[in-house]
Write a structure and sequence with these properties.
- The complex is a heterodimer of chains A (570) and B (183).
- With 570 residues, chain A is of the alpha/beta class.
- In chain A, 50% of the residues lie in helices and 17% in strands.
- A 5-stranded mixed beta sheet of chain A has the order 2-4-5-7-6, with helices on both faces. A 5-stranded parallel beta sheet of chain A has the order 9-8-10-11-12, sandwiched between helices. Chain A has a 5-stranded parallel beta sheet with strand order 14-13-15-16-17, sandwiched between helices.
- In chain A, 31% of the residues are buried.
- Chain B has a 4-stranded antiparallel beta sheet with strand order 1-2-4-3, with helices on one face.
- In chain B, β1 and β2 form a beta hairpin.
- Classes of the chains: A alpha/beta (570), B alpha+beta (183).
- Chains A and B meet through α1 of A and α2 of B.
Amino acid sequence: MDEDKELLIRKLEREIKARNEAEQLLEEKSLELYLLNKSLEEKINIRTSELIAARDQAIKANESKGHFLANMSHEIRTPLHGMLGLLNLMSKTQLNEIQEEYTKTITHSGRMLLTIINEILDFSKIDAGKFEFEYRDFDFRTCIENLIDVLSYDAYAKNLELLLYVDPRIPEILHSDESRLRQVLLNLIGNAIKFTPTGNININITLDDSQSDHKQTYIFFSIKDTGIGIPEDKIKKILLPFSQADTSDLRRYGGTGLGLTISKHIIEQFSGEIKVNSIEAKGTEFQFKIPFNTPYLSKDEPSIKDDLIYITSQKKSVRDNLETIVSSWGYRFESYKNTESIEKKILNTSKLNKHLICDWELFESINNSQSLISDKNLNIILSCAPADKAQLKKKYSKSKINLIAKPFKQGQILTLIENKKIEQNKLKDSFPTQINRKPAQSHILIVEDNQINQTVAAALISQFGYSFDIANNGLEAVNMFKEKSYTLILMDCQMPTMDGYTATKEIRMIESNLNIKTATPIIAMTANAFRKTKEKCFECGMNSFLSKPFSPSELEEVLINHTKQIQKTG
Amino acid sequence: MKGIVFTEFMNLVESKFGLKTADEIITQSDLESKGAYTSVGTYDYKEMLSLVSNLSSKTKLAKSILIKTFGEHLLNFFSIRYSNFFENKNTFEILKTLDNHIHVEVKKLYPKADLPKFSYEQNSEDVLTVIYKSNKPFADLAEGLISACVKHFNENIHISTEDLGNCDGTNRKFILTKVEKNG
């Protein structure tokens, strides 16, 4: 019994000792854990500080990138503006044939360079997350027809047909970023022209009425060519940066390989998706559909008109395009591929309202075209390549014949069909050949530090019929403004001594102090085309904005708008 | 050697041979720890050798048998305490993960643990060779663990052994061969 008791006591003592040891171990482990936790917290604090420093560095680098882009945009565009401006002025002087040819070539190269630089800057902006969009209401058909005209010279110089169809159900005014949409279409259609040796480029713009509703209008774009096509294994790569289907294409056709990537980015920002189908040696089609934040109101089908339209062209593609256009407006038509016996058909028709749409060369081949011209019920609309229009205008100016430059624009054709003969000078040309304005008592102040740009601006202003003074920087401009009143001020933004923003603020303050009721319009001229720059211009009191390099017509439009406003209020 | 080995050993001795025998072998072993073992502690492996030696003298059972039996007991204890390691496995899989998984996890909890090394070789689906190597003479313990593992998974595996090195229980080869069950 005692032995058992002693045994139990010894066991108990061992267990107490073991328990104490376990408790001590536990305390040691707790301390170890506490120290580890403390060390972990210190490490976390260090890592957090490092992350914050890295983040701040990244933000700074991004800001530097933004500044770099802005500076590069300015530094590159400024001399280009001078170059293209002077070339434009030179083209208006007396040049011999060779000089004219050289001027055209240099201008073409300069414009190509501008396109390439714009693409590189745009790509850099996309990469830096600074590619901006500006949404506003714009006239959709005018936008499309203007850009088609820009491209038409290149297309018809290669004997390609540009065939445009815009669904008449699409609302006239749409809400979107017009310049970005233009950029996409100029790229896609420009590429189609570039990569098509013969044939046509069909541009079909249609409404998707299954998706369009009271909130949004969905529009489907298709650009289809009969060009060299893209090999199947290269189709996916074509939308990646710096990729044409073949590197030899880059050398043969030129370009940065960035245009499609930029277009894809823009379409995706518009909530669309670009698709491409192609067969080598047959052609390529690019398609995309995008929503516009404009309500769609369904229209009634156009009523069937009593008129009859005769369509004549040797090319099926041209006939198809015209048939689609006229039928979409409710007109009945007859379509012919040659003029054999067309004269008899037209003359024998009793219709009161007859129209003939025909290539001018095909019309000239009709034996007795004079009898058609004499038919009082026949409206003759002849088409020609854009480069031939100036010359042919003289030929047909005294007859009842209407002459239009291709590509066919629906609005233009409709106007001619409804109004029959329209005086040639009332039919709007895309490129006015003469600038003929002489506004009275308009004196402009040109504020520009770059001498070449001073020369360009001064020459254009004179051509438009204005008188002018030149200031080399903002401070000079302010001092000159104190001495003399001006109809309008063209203000460069980045100048030494005093920049355009500060000068504008000073001028506005002078006007306020002198109680001048009508503020002098100040138009910003800048090679930096960022939205923040535009906002800064408006914030400091400028009225409008011209992005260098700007064309003579853009400058003219701004001058007319603002001097007209002055005349109205003055 | 981790305390859990000692506490489980003493539990086994108490249950098989009684409290008195357990007390006697502690007293006779002249232990630095005085036999006060906690499972979370760490003790000199020589204490285990001393305890086993004294138990062998007392029970007249060979040390190797005692250690092997303890190994079997230990495996059963592990299969209950750490059942997740044994789920959806078999003998070969457990043995192959001893060194590169089980002992790795042990080291995370007890960085200073001095564990034996197990390496293996498998040239066919039915034969696995496991080599035990340690600075402590507990190859019999390993053998007990392996036998119990086979029984735990109810497999028909024949185990043959070969002492390597100094044949002092620090280095032993185990060849496990799956035997087809006769119907």
